[in-house]
Here is the input.
Amino acid sequence: MSEAKWMSVAQVREQIRNNSAEEVTARYLETIGKSKLNGYVTVSEKAVEQAKEIDSKGHDGPLAGVPIAIKDNISVTGLPNTCSSKILEGYVPPFNAHVIEKLQAAGAVILGKTNMDEFAMGSSTETSCYGPSLNPWDPERVPGGSSGGSAAVVAGGEAPFALGSDTGGSVRCPAAFCGIVGLKPTYGSVSRYGVVAYANSLEQVGPLANNVSDIAVLMDVIGGYDRRDSTSIDRKIAYQEALKDDIKGLKIGVPKEFFGEGIDPAVEKAVWDSIHRCEDLGASWEEVSMPNIPYALASYYIIAMSEASSNLARFDGTRYGYRDKGENWHSMISKTRAEGFGVEAKRRIFLGTYALSAGYHDKYYLKALKVRTLVKQDFDRALSKADVLMAPTMPNPAFKIGEKIEDPLTLYLSDVNTCPINLAGVPSLSVPCGFTDGLPIGLQVIGKPFDEATVLRAAYAFEQNTDHHTRRPPEVA
Amino acid sequence: MITKEDVEHIGWLARIEISEQETVEYMEKLNSVLDYFGQLDELPTEDVAPTYHVAEIFNVFREDVVEESLPQEDVLANTEHKQDGAFKSPKIV
Here is the structure.
C-alpha cells in the first residue's frame, strides 16, 4: 500500500476499496503518532474499531471509511471537547453535533479532535492551552487560526480533510497559511447545533481539504437544513455539480480596499497574477470600491466580543469542566473563570462586557451593528455587478510563533480581509495561489449568499489550471 | 479611557476575579483596543438600521410538544457536584 499522505478523497476511497478502511485508518494513525505538529489534542481510540465496522458492513455511503479530523469545538459523543481551554477540562459531550451525525451517516471515520485558539479566539493557535500547532511549511511559524490544528493536519498529511469553524476567518486564514483549501459557507447553510458558540451571528462550520473537489464532497454531506439550529436555512445547494472547469464570461470584482496598507508585495502580486490567470481562462475583471471595508474590523471585533461575553457566561464550573473552590456562589464562579480562561478569552469577555454595559452599549455595540449594515450594503452593491469578488485571504504569509501574540491589536489586524465576509454572511473560499520564500499564499473567492456553486466553480477552474495546490510541504522532522 | 475602577467593575459583571497587577495590565491593553474601536465614530450612522444577523428569518417556532431529551444521568455525568438528580452549586445567599 502506498504512502497514506496527501491523498484526495477519491484516492482514499480507492485505497479503501483495494485494501480496507481499517488499513487506511491505521496508516493515518501511524502518521499522527510520529507527528510533531501538535495538530491533534485528542486522537480517537475508537477510529480503527469504527473503520473495521464499516469494512464489515460494506462500503456504503459517500464517505464510507474515509477518515476525517474535527476541530475541538464541534461535539462528538464520547470524545473530550475542550475548545483548547482549561475551563472545559474533562468535559465529554453526551451528544453529537449535527455535522457529526451527517458525517457518521455518510460513513466517515473520526480520527480525533484538533487544536485551536482557545474558544476560536485567535489567528495562530497560540492562545490554545495546549500550545501552538506548527505550520508544516516551516515549524517556526504559526499554522494560522483559529482552526490551525485542522489545517496543519491536512497540510501535514495526517488527515485527508477536516472540519473547522469560521467566525472571522478561522477556516480561511489557516487554509491560506498552510497551503490548502478552506470554505466559510453562507451563514445558515450548515447547522451550528452542537458547535460551541463564540459569536453566533457570525460563525459557520467549514471544511478544509487538499483540493476544491474535496471541499464540495464534504459540503454535500454536512450542508442542509436542521431545525435544531434556529438560524438554519432550508436551501438546496448542489456543491459537487458546481465543479466545472469553465469560467468563460465570469465577472470578477476586485475590491481595492482588500489591498490596503501593510499588504505584503509578494501576496499582492500572487493575487493579481491569479486574477490575470482567470482572465486568460475567459473571465473578466473590474475594480470595485467598498468604502466601508476599512471599518469592518472594528465592527467585527465589537460584535464578536459582545456575543462572546454572553456565550461564555455558561462556563461557571457548575455543570461541566474545571471548577475552583470558593466560599460562596460568586467567588466559586469568579475563581473558576479566572483560572479556567486564558488571557485572550478573558480580554474578549472584558471588552464585550464593557461594550454591552449600561452607558456604553450605544457607543460600541449599537454603533458596530449599524456599521455592519453599511458593510453588508457594500457587499450587496459589489456583488450586484460581479459574480464573485477576488482578494488576498491574508495580507501576509504565516508569521513566526511569538511574533504577534503580545500585542492584541496587531494580532486582530491580521483578520482585516477575512472578517468583513462574516459580517455580511456571504460564502468565501481560500485556494492556494502562490508562494513567497517557501510559504503559501491564499486567494480569497467571495460569492453571493447561497451561491457557493459559483465560488466553487471559479476556484475549481483556477485550481485545475494552476499547480500551486500540488506542492507539498517538506517533511516535518 | 477606562479606569482601574472600570476594570474592577467589569470583572465583577463578568464574574472573573482579577488581581491588582492584572487590573493595571488589563487597563492598558483594553484601552489600546478601545482606542482603535473609536474610529467608528468617524462614520455617520444616524439613519442606518442595525444588523443583528443576516439570516433573514425571524421567530422560528415549533409545535409546543414534549420531545425526547438526553437522559438525566448523561447530563449529570460531567460533574461530581450533584445531588438527587440536580446540579449542586455553592450557597447563593
Helices of chain B lie at 4-13, 20-37, 72-76. Residues 28 and 78 of chain B are 38 Å apart (CA to CA).
